[in-house]
Design a protein that fits this description.
Elements (H helix, E strand, L loop, with lengths): L13 H14 L9 E4 L3 H13 L5 E4 L2 H9 L14 E6 L3 E2 L5 E2 L6 H10 E9 L12 E5 L4 H10 L3 E8 L5 E6 L6 H9 L4 E4 L1 E2 L6 E6 L2 E5 L1
Parallel strand pairs: 1-2, 1-3, 3-6, 6-12
Antiparallel strand pairs: 4-5, 5-11, 7-9, 7-10, 8-9, 12-13
Helix pairs in contact: 1-2
Bound molecules: ribulose-5-phosphate (5RP).
Ribulose-5-phosphate (5RP) binds next to helix 2 and helix 4.
């Protein structure tokens, strides 16, 4: 892929980031198993992936979608969407982006508010292929505010519980596909992602938190100006 000037104004521009997202999305086509079901995540990187899939000529039996937005895009391209409950055989691959990913393939997800359905489809899949531009790779999770999907009546109590854990909760002006709220928790230093995922998921009213540590990625495709780096 070509990079068009000017790419740098102050730091990397969004245009470059989108080009990198598109590169990662294209590289993920290799992991699509033709004639099988495919799990599809949510976000701009996945948006590029859906366009690549539609124009690739690769045919899947159907896609299990992680959000209404993804469903709309898939259907607009004529790609069949199926309910996870209707899949009796297996789901070999799930392709999704992330907000942060560490060296153990633990992630923060949910920047787009689709974390619960994403976690469900990821868990049901044999292989999670994460597609990202290089800005998403971190040493330690937590610089990106951690999204939690929360039952509306529990927004205040969950916010207080997150303050007790040292976070700064901010309620997002957003309603999820499941009719719930999102709380973005700033200021967490996530040293032990699995333990924190357990602890937050136990708070009454939390549907799930955006730490994907118990079900992390299996393959990471990171795009940089040097090309695609594949890590397994
Ligand atoms: C949505 C997500 C996305 O994967 C994450 O926010 C990355 O999005 P983008 O590809 O737009 O950078 O978890 O809930």
């Amino acid at each position: 892929m070509r990079f068009q000037a000017p790419l740098f104004i102050s730091g990397k521009t969004m245009e470059l980031q989108n080009q990198l997202k598109q590169m990662a999305a294209k590289a993920a086509l290799e992991y699509v198993v033709e004639g099988e079901y495919l799990g599809v995540g949510t976000g701009t990187t996945v948006g590029f992936f859906i366009t690549e899939l539609a124009t690739s000529g690769k045919k899947v039996k159907g896609c299990v979608s992680s959000s209404e937005a993804t469903t709309r895009q898939l259907l607009a391209y004529g790609i069949p969407v199926c309910d996870l409950n209707d899949i009796v055989d297996y789901l070999p691959v799930y392709i999704d982006g992330c907000d942060e990913i560490d060296g153990n393939f633990c992630m923060i997800k949910g920047g787009g508010g689709a974390l619960t359905r994403e976690k469900i489809v990821a868990q049901a899949s044999e292989k999670f292929v994460c597609i990202a531009d290089e800005s998403k790779v971190v040493k330690q999770l937590g610089a990106f505010p951690l999204p939690l999907e929360v039952i509306p009546m529990a927004v205040s109590s969950v916010s207080r519980a997150m303050e007790d854990l040292g976070g700064h909760p901010v309620v997002r002006d957003f309603i999820t596909d499941n009719g719930n709220n999102i709380i973005d928790v700033h200021g967490l230093q996530i040293k032990e992602p699995q333990l924190l995922e357990n602890a937050i998921n136990k708070i009454p009213g939390v549907v799930t938190c955006g730490i994907f540590a118990h079900r992390g990625a299996d393959v990471l495709l990171v795009a940089s100006e040097a090309g695609i780096k594949v890590t397994k």
